[in-house]
Specification:
Layout lengths: L2 E6 L3 H13 L4 E6 L4 E4 L14 E4 H7 L2 E4 L3 E5 L4 E4 L4 E3 L2 E4 L37 E2 L1
Parallel strand pairs: 1-2, 1-9, 2-5
Antiparallel strand pairs: 3-4, 6-7, 7-8, 9-10
The structure holds flavin-adenine dinucleotide.
Length: about 140
């Protein structure tokens, strides 16, 4: 049976996590990228905007997620119940998961309500990531 993996976030950390999962877990994982913003923003180009030499590049997340073997869900995770393995959206909907990867940048999910999350917590490693997990510095996998 497939393990479900919920990735909270839609930035480069989330996409890299999805790509790594596709590579490492393949068909064993059913991956969902969950982010309130429907597009991926490529920030490095932003530095040239004030000088008129570049524009901020944005790409729709849905096709990017699909290219990484994942599904896109437009939602914002507000809190996590680790014992029940449920992520709760800001609209109050519960999303069950087997594995959760958290990469919405620090402080955007209520760490007090999801023990073990937050920038001061060590990254917890799932079997999917194995030795590759130390490369995912912006990511907490629980
Ligand atoms: C102007 C500028 C230039 C940069 N240039 C470079 C560069 O040249 N090279 C480099 O390596 N880095 C650069 N960076 C840094 C780089 O952009 C960040 O390190 C990178 O974006 C971090 O990726 P991330 O996925 O962790 O977070 P983000 O890109 O910030 O993505 C966070 C994602 O989480 C989502 N999210 C937020 N809250 C929630 C929630 N509650 N539930 C679900 N999803 C949520 C957001 O919608 C977003 O999709 C630059 C940054 C800036 C601002």
């Amino acid at each position: 049976m497939k393990e479900s993996v919920l990735i909270a976030g839609g930035g480069v950390a989330a996409l890299e996590a999805a790509l790594a999962l596709e590579d490492l877990a393949g068909d064993r994982a059913e991956v969902t990228i969950c982010s309130p913003r429907p597009n991926f923003v490529y920030r490095p180009y932003a530095v040239g905007v004030p000088y008129g030499v570049s524009r901020v590049a944005t790409y729709w997340l849905e096709p990017l997620a699909a290219a990484a073997g994942a599904r896109y869900r437009c939602d914002s995770i507000a809190s996590v119940d680790r014992e029940a393995r449920l992520a709760v959206t800001h609209d109050g909907e519960s999303i069950p998961y087997d594995n959760l990867i958290v990469c919405p940048k620090s402080g955007q999910i209520d760490g007090k309500r999801c023990h073990g999350l937050g920038p001061d917590q060590p990254t917890l490693i799932t079997e999917f990531f194995g030795n590759h997990a130390h490369n995912a510095r912006n990511t907490n996998a629980i």
